[in-house]
Design a protein that fits this description.
The protein is built from eight helices and 16 strands. It is an alpha+beta fold. Strands 5, 7, 8, 9, 10, 12 and 13 form a seven-stranded antiparallel β-sheet that branches. Strand 1 and strand 2 form a beta hairpin. Helix 3 crosses helix 4, helix 3 packs across helix 8 and helix 4 crosses helix 7. 36% of the residues are buried. The protein binds zinc ion (ZN). Zinc ion binds next to loops.
Length: 368
């Protein structure tokens, strides 16, 4: 009896000891990984969103639960080639005055629905079939009547590309330099790098970043030379301007429909912004807004702590203002969108000799 109880005691002690060691190790592990917590305002460039295990159907259902619910998650994974095909179909159907007008966002949403959100599965034959059905007089409502998720995909893709294609008037000049406005229908979003300036980039969305705290990269880095004029991709108003510990000198521009927030970061030391750019100001797609640099990764202002000069470009979707800050932000992988915008660059020139500031060469006007 006596011997048995000693044995039991020893076993109990051993188990208790192991348990304590195990718990201490857990505490140490999670303690360290959370030592540096970001403040809400600091996570503009990056957030801790977990990309894994996102089920499109669950998200779509969640978004439709009640009338005041909103979309919580969007992923865009289409290629630049696909964007070009769809935009060409849309633009040519409008410019040729054909009776059937194709809408590239509707085409994209149909495909997104068909592939469960994975546009990498795109097959040309699926698009050909869809276009021929539409051209034969069938409507998108008829073709999508059995697709439960069509509305979710339409709202998601429309939130990204709403202002990319449409009618506008562009300033042009003839051989003798006389300027005039011409009405056009087409791509009206611009590459964020000015015309005739080179840049390189790679697929860096979601890759790990270590400065500050454990996080992932929620944008695309466009590597170029210091001073390269940075262009507003879409029109909107300047929502934030100034120093951010992560982004350095940065500017955030919100689209007029409020659904997109464009984030341009690591702008040039000493002279980051275009002349007179200020918070609340309205900018037009194609305007010069700043200059590429290497500022950031510093709590102190105006410090070059980035190794390679680049523009960090990010696009955030906001369906509800609670998604602007915090841990439920939706950032889009813009790599393929940048590739798609390559052909639409804004031409610039040095307009002010004293400040060495650039301006766009040709204005564009929205058509009401
Ligand atoms: Zn970046």
């Amino acid at each position: 009896m006596f011997i048995k109880s000693v044995k039991l005691n020893l076993l109990k002690r051993f188990l208790l000891f192991s348990f304590i060691i195990f718990m201490s190790l857990l505490l140490v592990y999670f303690g360290f990984s959370n030592t540096i917590k970001p403040s809400v305002n600091d996570i503009e460039e990056n957030s801790l969103t977990d990309f894994a295990n996102v089920n499109v159907e669950d998200i779509a259902k969640d978004s439709e639960k009640s009338s005041n619910s909103y979309i919580k998650w969007v992923e865009f994974n289409g290629s630049a080639t696909l964007l070009r095909k769809l935009s060409d179909l849309d633009i040519s159907s409008h410019s040729q005055d054909s009776t059937i007008k194709l809408n590239w966002i509707e085409l994209m949403s149909y495909l997104g629905c068909k592939y469960g959100g994975n546009l990498k599965l795109f097959k040309q034959s699926d698009l050909d079939k869809l276009v021929s059905e539409l051209n034969s007089g069938k409507t998108m409502e008829e073709l999508t009547s059995n697709m439960k998720l069509y509305n979710y995909f339409y709202q998601s893709y429309d939130a990204i590309f709403h202002e990319f294609i449409g009618e506008y008037e562009v300033e042009t000049s003839d051989s003798s330099g006389n300027k005039s406005y011409t009405k056009k229908y087409g791509l009206k979003a611009f590459l964020p790098i000015a015309k005739n300036y080179s840049f390189s980039h790679y697929k860096d969305f979601g890759s790990a970043r270590s400065y500050g705290y454990k996080r992932v990269h929620l944008g695309n880095d466009l590597l170029g030379s210091i001073g390269t004029p940075v262009i507003a991709v879409e029109s909107g108003y300047v929502e934030s301007l100034g120093w951010n510990q992560y982004g350095g000198w940065r500017v955030g521009i919100r689209s007029f429909d409020k659904k997109r927030y464009y984030y341009y970061a690591h702008l040039r030391k000493d002279h980051p912004y275009a002349k007179d750019l200020a918070e609340g100001q309205i900018v037009s797609a194609g305007d010069v807004i700043g200059y590429l640099g290497m500022t950031g990764y510093s709590a102190k202002e105006n410090v070059n702590n980035i190794n390679i000069p680049h523009l960090h470009f990010g696009m955030q979707l906001i369906f509800n203002e609670v998604q602007k800050e915090g841990y439920n932000q939706i950032w889009i992988d813009v790599y393929e969108i940048i590739e798609f915008l390559r052909k639409n660059t804004s031409s610039v020139y040095m307009a002010y000799d004293d400040t060495k500031d650039f301006e766009r060469r040709f204005e564009i006007m929205p058509v009401e």
